[in-house]
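User: Run a structure prediction on this.
Assistant: Running it now.
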Amino acid sequence: MIEQMFTDFDRHLKAPEIDIETHVRRTHIQHAESRNGRRAIFLDTKYWIDLINVVCGTTTSEPLCWVEILLRVLREGVARGTLFCPVTEKVLDEIMNQSDDSSRTLTISLVDELSAGYALVPTLQRISIEVACFLYLYHDVDEFDLWPPKFLVWTRPSSLLASYPWNPMFSRETNAAIRKTFFDRWWGTSLQEMLATSDRPPSSPKNKNADLRINSIMTTDFTPPSSRVSKQHTRRKCEDLSTS
């Protein structure tokens, strides 16, 4: 793992023109495209607790209660690649604040399984994306291709808990390479792996890495072209969302 981080650092150091925001945005877009038509099923904290009670065998309901049926349906759908259950920073905050270590470990294991590695970016970032989408679409910003919000709101659960260091002793370019390296390190890590390799449980995702928020929803340098959309197409998508 350390060797891979040194390799990644070397690679990022040779590409100083790619800042951390661009690197994060590109990775998020690739992650969104990898869903391949999967349907997102959003569960609030109560449902996660009900599901983990079934996994722990602590449910007091009759055999084959509705929660057991739900868990079976969700697991089958995730295994088939037809659905996933993304988590949010609020759900992760509740999970990481659990006082019982064994319960938290089982919950994280279930989140890794059902989320299939998908989480929504933090609330403030989603708001920024929506506002930027509105501004660019309705204020005649024609010189850029625009990404619809659906390509920018997906991240991985581990990224909501990860930290990306910055040291004023290093140059801007070196700091950017370090942060991109740590982003890559945690991006490919499950919550279980993060918990296992940490001396202490990861802290709450609240306010983490606020400076990594996406500053705009336009890009002129990312491929594949098949995913890039015109302003007219993006406006149509946003209008469809606003009327649904």
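The CA atoms of residues 142 and 231 lie 7 Å apart.
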